[in-house]
Amino acid sequence: SPLRDRFATKGLLYGAAVSHRSLSSDLPFANRVAAECAILVPESELKWKALRPTPDRFSFAASDWLVNFARSQGLLMRGHTLVWHEALPKWFATKVDSRNAEQLLQQHIATVVGRYAGKIHSWDVVNEAVHPDDGRTDGLRQWPWLQFLGPDYIETAFRAAHEADPQAMLAYNDHHLEYDTKDQEARRTAVLKLLERLKSRGTPIHALGIQAHLRGDADRFNAKKLKTFMRDVASLGLKIMITEMDVTDQKLPKNIDTRDRIVAGSYEDYLNVALEEPAVIAVLTWGLSDRYTWLESQKPRKDRAPVRPLPLDAKLKRKLAWNAIARAA
Ligand code: XIL
Questions:
Q1: Where is the GH10 domain (predicted)?
Q2: CA-based, 20 to 30 A from 241: which of 183, 213, 281, 282?
Q3: What is the ipTM of this complex?
């Protein structure tokens, strides 16, 4: 049975990131997406760069198509993402300053969240706002929103999203939270502090999204620290979603069986920890099939062999990673 059914028996959601381009042009792929997934998330179509070609125009064609696809197939849809320092349109650098940033952000959230109100399971309201390297004591990223609006922009964004769609679950989403390095330890601490602060101020935040872009070649994460982190998040009354899971095989040996075994091992080890935490409600992989993965351009292999980070191979066949995810549920 497909992953969606295996997850459903545990009260969990399985899903994947998709793009308008792949889904609308590749019917066999679209069929597999509809079969395996209970929930989808647009990989890029809801980012500023896609939605805001000019300062005063919105372009919703691709995101509308995806939201309709999900509805027509009876799938849930996530929203990703309203506030991020990446995927901004070119005009952002010259047109935005501390005088107009607040109004621009409010208008963006009201328009985008309002358009899909009632149709989105959960929004990644703010993405990757923590960046301890910037040297602030609160660990927050300086540019661009904090620089324009101060640290309260995060709370502002959540309140605006809640007003535009009171039904949607609202999440803070971040990455590099699993490994046992000093950097990731600092990130876990800063994320927890941020979540605590938001909760203590009555901010409408309901979940933490953990991206979980893993590395097959990395030392396995520290299961105990990941577990404790998830417990701490849950004790704030927040749900947890694994939002962007994949396992890069960039630096693994060329042999496909070896690679697939290591990748599958990372999925299984991680999910065995994550799915033990009752606050975890969903797991989404960042793509479904190796046919479409951002890692092909982001983390290509030196030997130029196609990368294999996802549950299905490029021919849409189930891999060991699929088995690992199925077993973990
Ligand atoms: C990535 C997309 O997959 C790429 O296609 C795009 O070029 C860049 O963004 N963390 C996130 C996602 O929150 O939005 C990113 O998606 C991957 C890392």
A1: 1-328
A2: 183
A3: 0.99
